[in-house]
Predict the 3D structure of the following.
Amino acid sequence: MPRHPEVVPAVAAMGGSVYSSLAERAAASGPEVFALHVGDTWLEPAEGCRMEDLRVADHPGLHRYAPVQGLPALIDAIVERTRARTGHATERSEVLMTAGATGGLGAIVGALVAPGDEVLILAPYWPLIAGIVRSFHGTPVPVKFFAGADVSDAASAVRAVAAARTDRTVALYLNTPNNPSGRVMPRDQVEALVAWARRENLWILSDEVYEDYVFEGEHVYTRPMAPERTFSSYSFSKAYGMAGNRCGYVIGPAEALAQVRKISTHTFYSTPTASQIAAARALGGPGDAWIDAVRPQYAAIAREAAARLGVEAPQGGTFLFLDVAAHLDAGGLGGFLERCADRGLLVAPGTSCGPYPTHVRLCYTCAPPDVVRRGVDVLAALMGR
């Protein structure tokens, strides 16, 4: 029970920077910084879907609060899009606009996870999810799955999560295409995990923000398999190059989503109005054309970077996850990251993504391809390639 000047121990134990604390060191290293540590894109959104395209004259109320659930026209567009993509019946009451997928997942965890409850998180994982669980006083439980584990089929996928389950487990979090490994979960594994979660009476948190960026295989939608217990999260940030807009949405069972909405209301209240208008414009057609043009660009630089670093090309997403154990000295991963920063390169530590003290994560879409190439060359040199 903390009293001034103490804070909650679980929060005090959280890192302040999940990506990199070496930005100043990299900036002082020379004329160019290769900031490949944060998941973003170098591209602007589609024309007509940018903030500069919005005028109060065309959108009265542009600077006012939006309805807490979201703009009705945008929710209607998402319902139709979801029905078309997943083949599953979706109603307006099952959709909630959020302050990015981050805000959506935070609201879901806030509604479902009580202090001390455990959430199984397939690892390596998106760096913010563990902190979100801790923020609501839950316990994140990493389950090695996409890297550093013997998971090759449906049976081994279930064994991995079953071994980590305890009486305190309330939910399973999965992310496909996976940030940071680039793995796309095959249908049989998703089906097996969903069936297991149903048998164990667990909630399912399905993070599908990279649904549009699959280079090999197919994206498998989780919610149609268990709609009564699945919350799926999506992001205009990742889909349409709108990270700064902070606009995403979640879809889940209506009765439980009403409780999630209580958390969103008392945290970010409503999703920015202008961001939702831009999102609606993207769903109106320009966004899909933008994705169709961008996806092959992402895939090309992904293959090129992977080949230069001598690792397998990702199946989707926007990251490479590399084991640099053979290139660490007595300084460990911290020393390796410092050597990167001294050459102007910023990459994220694998420890931000789970129990991976010899890995680094590199985003190959957050800078123009020529900048990414030069940054990858720095990392390749440090790896003796």
Notes: The mean pLDDT is 96. The first helix runs from residue 9 to 12. The radius of gyration is 21 Å. Residues 71 and 223 are 23 Å apart (CA to CA).
